[in-house]
Q: What sequence folds into this?
């Protein structure tokens, strides 16, 4: 029998072996020089843990809540597009795995399975990620469908007025993805012109005029709570709170948008301080270990989202693989909590980590 993967790295290796290069590169690649892509992960390695000893850790409770919804642990599924590239069941398999692990999945606007299919696949709390298109009615229609099918929040992605330059997709001439949610709603001109079809598609659909006033527009079409995903700067976090959003995701879109934007973990504390508890602050980007999750929580995140690891699991073993990836991260977090002397999420504090600057002092 083939050895079971023991960490996310090994799942990544399997995904690389089983996926066509074009799809693996689409999942794994970043923008430009991929500097931020590497930094998202490297920045976690520069943070050390400060364990406390002689604490009774015979029982560890990782549970937490977000917007009042309970989760087994603060590790959520980030919105990523086109799961059918990885597995024929696509987002339905991912949704079932997330539900089995008692965690929250954010379904991508660019999913390859319909909102309705994902909703009826299993009972679970889910959020819906939104892109705003030039044709506002397309976005409004999807928001209405998500609301009707029981999604509990809208996660508005705010770092994508235009698509980042993903050179691997351009080189590979990435084929037009199947975006089932948009069937009959969008028709664009992407032909065999060379380059990435996704880039051509995005340039004809995404609305680069999206701005702060549009939060009011979104509020006028939905009663669901709104979370902004893609904030990096404290100023924007403050503005988001003023606008009355229900949460913030510190994210650089997995380094797929603006290269040389900072690693998300390096700006988390700044954003958390600016928000000063007004709304939950989440983070994503580069999380590959339970220790990474612990570090993010210590620096003030309410929960984390993982993107690529879910896709590696899905490509390797479908629903079972996604479940295994989530369980792996959960048990790594549980062990880290035990070894750091923390028995619940609330006990994880700033004092449990040491950042690079602090070492120099
Ligand atoms: C993404 N991401 C993303 N974000 C979003 O708001 N809508 C989307 O449709 C997508 N699609 C997408 C596809 C793929 C293949 C990836 C890798 C990422 C970004 C995603 O939500 C998240 O911010 C990052 O994936 C987090 O970084 P890690 O965990 O992949 O390092």
A:
């Amino acid at each position: 029998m083939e050895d079971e993967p023991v960490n996310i790295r090994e799942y990544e290796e399997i995904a690389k072996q089983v996926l066509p290069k074009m799809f693996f590169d689409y999942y794994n690649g970043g923008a430009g020089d991929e500097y931020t892509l590497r930094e998202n992960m490297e920045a976690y390695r520069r943070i050390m843990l400060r364990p406390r000893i002689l604490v009774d850790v015979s029982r560890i409770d990782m549970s937490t809540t977000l917007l009042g919804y309970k989760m087994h642990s603060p590790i959520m599924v980030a919105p990523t597009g086109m799961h059918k590239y990885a597995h024929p069941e696509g987002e339905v398999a991912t949704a079932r795995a997330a539900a089995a692990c008692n965690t929250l999945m954010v379904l991508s606007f660019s999913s390859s399975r319909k909102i309705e299919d994902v909703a009826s696949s299993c009972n679970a709390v889910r959020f819906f990620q939104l892109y705003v298109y030039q044709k506002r009615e397309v976005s409004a229609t999807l928001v209405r469908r998500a609301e009707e099918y029981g999604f509990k929040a809208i996660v508005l992605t705010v770092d994508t007025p235009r698509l980042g330059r993903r050179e691997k997709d351009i080189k590979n001439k990435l084929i037009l993805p199947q975006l089932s949610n948009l069937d009959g709603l969008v028709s664009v001109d992407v032909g065999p012109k060379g380059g990435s079809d996704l880039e051509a598609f995005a340039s004809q659909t995404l609305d680069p005029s999206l701005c702060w006033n549009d939060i009011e527009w979104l509020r006028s079409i939905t009663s669901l709570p709104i979370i902004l995903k893609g904030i990096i700067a404290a100023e924007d976090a403050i503005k988001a709170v003023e606008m009355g959003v229900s949460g913030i995701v510190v994210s650089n879109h997995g380094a797929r948008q603006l290269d040389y934007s900072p690693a998300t973990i390096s700006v988390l504390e700044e954003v958390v301080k600016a928000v000063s508890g007004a709304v939950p602050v989440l983070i994503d980007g580069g999380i590959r270990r339970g220790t990474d999750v612990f570090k993010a929580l210590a620096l003030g995140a309410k929960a984390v989202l993982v993107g690529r690891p879910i896709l590696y699991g899905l490509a390797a073993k479908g629903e079972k693989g996604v479940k295994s990836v989530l369980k792996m991260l959960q048990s790594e977090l549980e062990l880290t909590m035990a070894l750091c002397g923390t028995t619940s999420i609330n006990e994880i504090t700033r004092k449990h980590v040491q950042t690079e600057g602090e070492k120099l002092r």
Observations:
- The mean pLDDT is 95.
